[in-house]
Amino acid sequence: MLLQVEDLSVNYGVIHAVKGVNFEVNEGEIVSLIGANGAGKTTILKTISGLMRPAGGKIVYDGHEIQKFKSQKIVAGGISQVPEGRRIFAGLTVMENLQMGAFLRKNRDALKKDYQEVFERFPVLQERKNQDAATLSGGEQQMLAMGRALMAKPKLLLMDEPSMGLAPIFINEIFDIIQAIKQQGTTVLLIEQNASKALSIADRGYVLATGNILMTGTGKELLANKDVQKAYLGG
Amino acid sequence: MQQLVNGLSLGSIYALLALGYTMVYGIIKLINFAHGDIYMLGAFWGYYVINQLHFNFWLALASAMLFCALVGVVIEYLAYRPLRNSPRIAALITAIGVSFLLENGMAYMFSSNVRSFPQVMKVKQYHLGSVSISNIQILILAVSIILMILLQLIVRKTKMGKAMRAVSVDPAAAQLIGINIDRTISFTFALGSAMAGAAGVMIGLYYNSIDPLMGMTPGIKAFVAAVLGGIGLIPGAAIGGFVIGLLETLMQALGFSAFKDAAVYAVLIIILLIRPAGILGKKIKEKV
C-alpha cells in the first residue's frame, strides 16, 4: 500500500470539512475521489500535501506517517500535486515552470531525460518553452501543470480537478494522459467533479459527501451503481 | 546637463533602495517600512569599518552588504515571519515599529549626532564642457548599475531567483512542488537589504554625513519610486528610482529646493490617482 489515510479529519476554523475519512491507494493504481463541491475533496489533497494540518487521524505514505511533515519534505518523498485551477507561474516561461517542478532535484543527467520525457508527452510545451506561461490556453496550462508536477518525479501524483474549465476535446486528452502516466508506473490519486470520466479510468473509487466517504468500489462498480448514477452521473 | 548627472547619481541610490521595497512587496505583499533604516545601518557599518578597521571602499561596501543582508534576514525572521498568516495591516504596523526601533535604538547607542563620513577616497572633479562630474558620482552610478544588473541576473537566471518569482506569483503552488517558502523569503530579504547596505555606504561617501534618522526620507522616497515604477516589478523600481532622483534635482535646479520633497510626494499622489499599477504595471487581470 502506497498511501493510507486513516480516520482523517480536517477543520477550516469551526467548519468540519473532513470527518474521519478512511481510504487507501495501492501502488500502480488510479484512485478517484468523487463528490460534489464542498464534499471535502480538495481539503483532503491539501492535507496530504502538507498545506493543511489535520485535526485528527493519520496519513501513512510508504510506511511513514507524514501528516506533520512540511510540504517540501512530502514532495521530496515523492508526492507531487497538480493543484486545482492549474496554478502555473505566470510571468515565468514554460521552461522555468518545469524547472521549478524539479526544484528539489539535483541530478542533471536524470533531469535532462525527464524534460525530454515531458516534452514528448506534451509536445506543445516544447514548442512554447520560452513563452510566458500565462499566454498558454487553459488546456495547455493544464498540461504545463501536469508536466511541472511530473518533473518532481513523483511516485504518487495527486490531481485536483484536472478537467475543470477545459474544452471537451482537452478533457479527453487530459484523461488519456493520466492513463499514460499510470502505465509508466506513477500512482495517481484523482479528484474530480466529472465523475463519469474519473470513474471510467479509475481502478477504484470513493464517493465523498459532506466530509464522509459514502461508498467505495472499483471504477466499474461505481459507474454501474444506481445511487451514484443518480447523484453524480446525471441520471 | 549638470542636473542630469546629479539626478542620476541620486536616482541610482533611490533605485537601489526601491529594489528592496519592491522585491519584498512582490513576495510577501508587505511594505517594509524598516527598509530605509537598513540603509542607515549600512552607512553606519561603513563609517565604523572605515574609521576603526581602515577598510577601503570596496571592502566597506561588500561587508556592509553582507551585514545588511544578515540584518534583513534576522528582521524578517523575528518580526515578520510570526505574522505571515496575520492580516497584512498587522505586518505593516510591525514594519513601522521595527523602523522606530532601529532609528531610536541607533540614536540611543550611538547618539543622534550627525557624523561626517570618512572620506575613504579622494574626490576628483572632471569637467566636460560646462558639466562637472566627481569620481564619486561616477562610482555611485557604476556600482549601482552593476548591482542592478547582477540582481536582475540572479532573479532571472538562478534557481533561487526563479523560486522567488514563483513564490511571489503563487506561494501555495510553489510549496506543492517543494519550494521552501521560508528560505525563499529570507533570500529575498537578504538580496534587498544588501542593496540597501550598498546604497548606505555610497550615500555616506556622497553626502559626507550620516545620522540615525537618515533612512527615513530616502526610505519613503524609494518607496514612492517603487510605486511609481510598479510595485513588485524589479525593472520598475530601477526606473522609478532614476525618475525620482532626476525630479528632485530638477526641482532644486529650478529654485524650488524647499519643494523638492513635496514634489516627490505629489508624484505618489498623482500616480496613485491615475495609474496605481505604476509605469510598468499592467492592469491586473485575474484568470479563472
Structural write-up:
Chain A is α/β, with parallel strands linked by helices. Chain A has one domain (about 5-90, about 105-110, about 150-230): Rossmann fold, CATH 3.40.50. Helices cover about 40% and strands about 25% of the residues of chain A. Chain A has helices at about 40-50, 70-75, 95-100, 110-120, 125, 140-150, 170-185, 195-200, 220-225, 225-230; strands at about 5-10, 15-25, 30-35, 55-60, 65, 80, 155-160, 185-190, 205-210, 210-220. In chain A, helix 3 (about 95-100) packs parallel to helix 6 (about 140-150). Chain B has about 290 residues and is mainly alpha-helical. Chain B has one domain (about 1-215). Chain B is built from eleven helices and four strands; from the N terminus they run ααααβββααααβααα. Chain B has a two-stranded antiparallel ribbon. A two-stranded antiparallel ribbon of chain B has the order 2-3. The radius of gyration of chain B is 19 Å and the shape is globular. The interface of A and B includes residues 71, 85 and 90 of A.
Concise synopsis of the structure shown:
With 235 residues, chain A is α/β, with parallel strands linked by helices.
Low-confidence runs of chain A: none
Widest sheet: strand ordering of chain B:
1-4
Overall residue-averaged pLDDT value of chain A: 93
Regarding quaternary structure, how should these chains be classified? heterodimer
Counted by DSSP, the helix tally of chain A is 10
Number of strands of chain B: 4
Q: Radius of gyration of chain A over alpha carbons? A: 17 Å
- Give the tally of structural domains of chain B: 1
Give the helix level of chain A as a range of percent.
25-40%
Shape of chain B: globular
Strand coverage percent of chain A:
25-35%
Q: Main beta sheet of chain B, described? A: 2 strands, antiparallel
CATH fourth-tier homologous superfamily of chain A: P-loop containing nucleotide triphosphate hydrolases
CATH topology of chain A: Rossmann fold
CATH architecture of chain A: 3-Layer(aba) Sandwich
Amino-to-carboxy terminus distance of chain A: 34 Å
Mean pLDDT of chain B: 92
User: H/E order of the elements of chain B?
Assistant: HHHHEEEHHHHEHHH
Strand content of chain B: under 5%
Distance between the termini of chain B: 50 Å
